[in-house]
Amino acid sequence: MQFSKSTDYALHALIHLGNAERRHNIGIKELSAALGVSDSYLSKIMSKLRQDGIVRAVPGVNGGYELARPAEHITFLDVIQVIEGRQQLFECSNSSSRQHELLSGNEASHPECDHSEKRECLVKKVMDGAEQQLHRYLEEHTVQTVLDEASKRHTVK
C-alpha cells in the first residue's frame, strides 16, 4: 500500500497552514514554493480539501488558504480519505472459489453447518482488522500533533 504524492502534499500544506507562527492565510504561490510543487497541481489538491471543509479559500488580492477548523480537529485519516478516497483497502475477490468456502466456513460438505449465516472469509477478517488499526492510528494523529512535535524538536536544539 502506498499513498499518493497528492496526500503527501496535502498533509504538508496543512501543516504549513497550521504553523503556529502563521495566523493569516497563505497564497497558492507562497504555499507551492514552500512545498516545491507547481501552483496548478497544488490548486487541485487544495480544491479537494476546500470542498471537504478542511481548508477555506479567502478571496481577494491578499487571499489564499487557511485552515477551516482547528489543527487539532484535522486528522491524518480525514486528509487521506479526501485525497485517496474512502474505499476499503482490501476486497476479497476470490469469493466463488473452493478456497474461499474453506476459509469462510461455508462448505457445502458439512450438512451440520447452518448456511443461513454467511461467515466472513478469514483472510478478509485479518485485512479488515489491519485496516481498522491503521484508521485508529491515523485518527490519533492530527495536524496539531505534528506541529507540537516539530515545536518540541526546535526547542531541544
What share of the residues lie within helices?
A: 40-55%
Euclidean distance between termini CA atoms: 35 Å
**Overall average pLDDT:** 85
Number of helices: 7
Radius of gyration: 22 Å
Number of strands: 2
* Strand line-up across the major sheet: 1-2
Q: Would you list the SSEs in sequence order as H and E?
A: HHHEEHHHH
- Class by alpha and beta content: mainly alpha
Structure report:
The protein has 157 residues and is mainly alpha-helical. The protein has seven helices and two strands, in the order αααββαααα. The protein has a two-stranded antiparallel sheet with strand order 1-2. Helix 1 packs across helix 2, helix 1 crosses helix 4 and helix 1 packs across helix 7. The two termini are 35 Å apart.
Topology overview:
Layout: H1 5-18, H2 28-35, H3 39-51, E1 55-58, E2 64-67, H4 76-84, H5 98-104, H6 122-140, H7 143-156
Antiparallel strand pairs: 1-2
Please name the defining characteristics of this protein.
single chain, 157 residues, mainly alpha, elongated
Can you give me a brief rundown of this structure?
With 157 residues, the chain is mainly α.
